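Support reply, case 0932

Customer input (verbatim):
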Amino acid sequence: MTEIPDDGFIDIHAHFTTPATEDQSRRAWQKMLSRGIYLPEPFEWSLDRTLEYMDLSGTAKQFLSNIPASRAALQASNDYGAAVVARHPTRFGLLAALPTDNPAAALDEAVRGRDTLGADGFAVTANYNGTHLGTDDLFPLWEQLNDWGSVVFVHPDARQAPTLDHPAPLYEVAFETARTVFDMMFRRVFSQFPNIRFVFAHCGGAFPALAGRVSLLGNEAWVPHGLPAQDLELQLANIYVDTAATAFSSSLLPVVATLGADHIVYGSDWGAPCTTTATAEKNRNSLQHSAALTSTEAAAVRRRALDLFSLDSHRLARDSKSSASD
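Our regenerated output:
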């Protein structure tokens, strides 16, 4: 095993896909084309290419996530992700996907992910097959994850149809993320389950930029189930965001103003079909030179995931010491 450098990046937002036949890859590509995502060829995640990029970028560890749309595919994906982690325990961690359109199945998969697969945390989609995360039906799931003190990574659904002929991953995902954060706030999810660390992708989408508006207007008489400004402020304590495709001052400044620099976690979006080495590196380099963060703050973002995954941090440190003594 390779010792993990002190300045290595810990990446909370990295994707993978399960192995597929040529026909399956082509059909998946055709679905992307139908949604306006004009990739020049079918996409296939590669473990070797991922490790090469991690070495190139100084990424010490990636927490892998993949959330297929069906329960069977989701379980198979979690199994495959756990196998990748078992082969490379110091380079990868697993965020087990949960099928939140079926609360009972999501709870079962959370238990399986934690007890059988050894998952480090969990991954959910903001709107999974029409079910949003603020629904009361998911409260038993949140109660269990709260008891465990879990990390929950929240990703928007990039499989949506185009908006105004623009593919959803371009900007629509940012609005879906904001809708999800605010709905969960109005339903007091963050305050009722304070031991869950929620990490929202892409700097929280449009949420940080709109937080002031909702704080101003959220408790007006015309707003159902009002949200007083002090309630909004209290709930911010459990919210983190990652830097995937958003490590630029225009995105980071609203986050710093709303959540603080200490709630930013490094994310690359590596493994997504629309992420290339060039875009991932431009995003990573921008983080290190952003005017929104001091050099000390930017350095802290690189490894902040270890503050969230306390058990994994211990495992990572233990494995590093073992490697050094080999």
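We compared this against your earlier run and they match. Two observations from our side: DSSP finds 14 helices and ten strands in the chain. Residues 311-326 have pLDDT under 50 and may be disordered. Please reopen the case if you see a mismatch on your end.
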